Amino acid sequence: MPCPPVSSHPRWLRLTHWLNALAVLVMVTSGWRIYNASPLYDFSFPKGITLGGWLGGALQWHFAAMWFLAVNGLVYLACNLFSGRLKRRFFPVSPKGVLHDFWAALRGKLGHADLNHYNQVQRLAYLFVMVDITLLVLSGLVLWKSVQFPLLRELLWGYEGARHVHFIAMALLVAFVAVHLVMVALVPKTLLAMIVGRKEPI
Amino acid sequence: MKKPIQDAGLDESSILTDARKILAPQIEDRSRRSFLLRGLTLGGVAMLSGCNLTDNDSVETALSAMSRFNDRVQGWLFNPNAMAPTYPASMITRPFPFNAFYGIDEAPTVEEESYRLEVTGLVTDKRTWRLEELRAMAQTEQITRHICVEGWSAIGRWGGVRFSDFLKRVGADTDAKYVGFKCADDYYTSIDMATALHAQTLLTLTYDGAVLPREYGFPMKLRMPTKLGYKNPKHIQAIFVSNTYSGGYWEDQGYNWFGGS
Ligand code: HEM
Q1: What is the pLDDT of residues B156-196, one digit of tens each?
Q2: Distance between CA B118 and CA B166 in Å, rounded?
Q3: In this complex, do A38 and B21 lie within 8 Å of one another by their Cβ atoms?
Q4: Which residue of A170, A174, A183, B258 has the fewest C-beta atoms within 10 A of its own C-beta?
Q5: Considering only CB atoms, which chain B residues are within 8 Å of A159?
Q6: ipTM of the complex
């Protein structure tokens, strides 16, 4: 079936992607400052890479940016789901396929000619980060309003459990971003596509 | 079944270290009044090519507008029938951490004999109360989790008068928007009426079965398990019912006013 001549990165995707990147940056850096007020583990984040200046400032950034993260994320998921793009671009994905593509990538045998096609490692990574951000938002809801969301609170091991979930989900998100940035640096034409949405051929 | 117990384990190991670490940043934070004007460091991001967020009034305005929006959302989310979880006595955090905007030695000493609680504003019975009168009212007790804005939490046992009983007794206008508090340590805060009337909101006179000690707020502390720690005033001297917003010690510096959980 011939593909309709649409951009591989439609405008709503590029918009929500960059808004998300900004929201994540603010959420993560202000979150680090909030963490520092009462570190859950045996370390603190260097003050210089945190946002907000003091706890109250960081909380204001965090509780403002959370709306942008959540609303923007919902718009992204809804567009992705209802346009059929989610199914088209991220499925199928299977353990075997992921291993196969991962192995191919290591040997430099994975093509990036067609930006319309995500390989299975990409699919898994992107699906993972969608779930991870969802988990961040849900555990954040428990930390913010633990009395008002009893079911969610119990599912996430109570208030103290949700602190750990929230932190671990943040760490995984940061790990995703690190790998993501390396990948973009390795295949810079994807960045162009994500900015201007131009289609093939390069 | 085992979950709460695990929880307690986490608490106990972390609370003590946390509580110690907390005091230092607290004191550091205390002097930061116009925090946004001063403190916005988006460190690594090289201050967006010279545009210093620190001097940016519009950032501050936008962030406080969002904070007021969050007050409204929380007021709307607040379910008067949703109860904060309660715990068995075995899960009480010992020792329960001291926390205030000053060190433990500076906690105010209030004399019981001369103490009078002042009640003013939109109430029919404007008068002062002695502690015995409050002790003579129906008492109730609860073991709940105190959650600090800094992230740590601790379980404690408080007893006293249900605040809604007290408000009824003084003939408070429960359609009013706010209840405000002034304290012996110069702390002040205000809360929404819905939370004031919540069944778990207690005007506490005891801690763990004994008279509320000085470090936990003698002679009385308003304990709300549906709000963060800084919303729970200690050493209360005056209570007023009002329709005028009066903020609070931390709230005026940028903490969210509703501060609910
Ligand atoms: C900060 C958090 C970020 C998250 C959570 C994130 C997440 C994602 C996701 C889920 C996709 C797939 C979108 C889709 O096709 O539906 C994607 C694609 C992409 N992102 Fe990000 N991203 C982030 C930051 C960034 C940054 C900072 C850059 C660039 C410097 C970037 C560059 C790209 C590019 C170029 C693509 C398209 C890659 C491709 O064609 O495979 N992202 N990102």
Answers
A1: 999 999 999 999 999 999 999 999 999 999 999 999 999 99
A2: 13
A3: yes
A4: A174
A5: 145, 147, 153
A6: 0.90
